[in-house]
Amino acid sequence: MANYSRWSEVRAERPAPSEETRASVEQDLALGQLIYDLRTEAGLSQRELASRMGTTQSVISRLEEGGGARNRIDTLARVATALGRHLVLSFPEEVPGDMKDSVQVA
C-alpha cells in the first residue's frame, strides 16, 4: 500500500524559510511582475517577446514567474532591448524613494 502524506504534515516537518530566502523570492517575484507588466503594456505575447529576444516562450514564462535561478544581467538586458527599454544598474549609497518601472533587489 502506498504511503501518502497530507500536505499539512509535510509542511509541518519542513523548516520555515529564512528571512534572506523570503526576501530573495519576493525580489524575484517583483522582477517577474515588472517584466510581465512591461510586456503586456507593449502589447506583446510571451511568444512575441521571446522571438524578439531569440529565445523560447517558456523562458519568458519562467522569467515572469520569478526567474527560477537568479536572472542574469545579460538576460535582463535582452528583455529591455526587446521591449524598447533600457536596463539601468546602479550602486547608490542611498536608494531613491520611488523609481517608476524599477525593482529594488538589494
Describe the model.
With 106 residues, the protein is mainly α. It has a domain of 63 residues: lambda repressor-like DNA-binding domains (434 Repressor (Amino-terminal Domain)). Helices cover 53% and strands 0% of the residues. Helix 3 crosses helix 4 and helix 3 crosses helix 5. The longest helix is centred in the N-terminal third of the chain and has 23 residues. The model has no long low-confidence stretch (mean pLDDT 85).
CATH superfamily assignment of the domain at 20-82?
lambda repressor-like DNA-binding domains
Radius of gyration: 18 Å
The CATH architecture of the domain at 20-82 comes to: Orthogonal Bundle
What's the CATH C level of the domain at 20-82?
A: Mainly Alpha
What are the salient characteristics of this protein?
106 residues, mainly alpha, 434 Repressor (Amino-terminal Domain), 5 helices
Concise summary:
With 106 residues, this protein is mainly α. The protein has a domain at 20-82: lambda repressor-like DNA-binding domains (434 Repressor (Amino-terminal Domain)). Helix content is 53%, strand content 0%.
